[in-house]
Amino acid sequence: MEGSALDALVGVSTLVFVVTSMVAMGLSLTVRQVLDSLSNGRLVALALVVNFVAVPAVAYGIDLVLNLDESLFTGLVLIAVAGGAPFLPKLVQVAKGDAALSVGLMVLLMVATVVVMPLALPLLLGDVEVNAWDIASSLIFLMLFPLGASLVVRARYADLAESSVPAFERISSVAMAFLAVGGIIANWNEVVSLVGTRGILAAALLIVIAFGLGFGTGGSETATRSVFGLGAGQRNLSAAFVVAVQNFPDDGDVLAFVIVAGLVGLIVLMTAAAEVGRRQAPTG
Fold it and tell me: pTM of the predicted model, to two decimals?
């Protein structure tokens, strides 16, 4: 299959995965469940600190140890400051964690990312311009709108919503599988370009340490800790990519790092989620 055709299919599978994941979550939950999941102010505050203070600090620590090239360090900071990814509910489903909390935390981190990135990146990287609407628009139309619409359907037509969830979950799972395999094939050149640069190691370290920080501060129950761990480990690659394209269009290494970090994160966190799920009893 030619590269352009594969790229297009990966792009379509990404859209299908994001939208169907949001719809499946919205159809299976109520607004009250989502809001109640964020009622623990202490854990919510810790999640914000971990995602937008601790993880960026870890990025700087990794750079001190690995002495990354400037482009790789820039990419590392971009993903470190971006939280709230559409993969979180699916990862939490694999981990048999708290589904309502995964949606609530995802939305919270997405909104915080739109606020934090334009403020933090100029301080962390110098002459960087961030258009908050460019970041927010894709998150609103691809994630929040499908989620909100499906929550309304759930509230009005509960039986229809419940019967529709399995179909959307199957579509989401197939799209995710194609995205994982197709994404690696389509971006193989980017993966190869980072071999020997310590970029892949840096991305893996950030994701593993972020997962550990989230998991360690997520309370006493595994179903909750898995949400906070996966929420911290899974960075918002869409937001990072928007900033990379806007500010570093001629620096292929920054874009390559963001792409590869997404692939590394998917592999690492799916493995972690599966392991947690193997040890965890299902929960709502």
Answer: 0.84
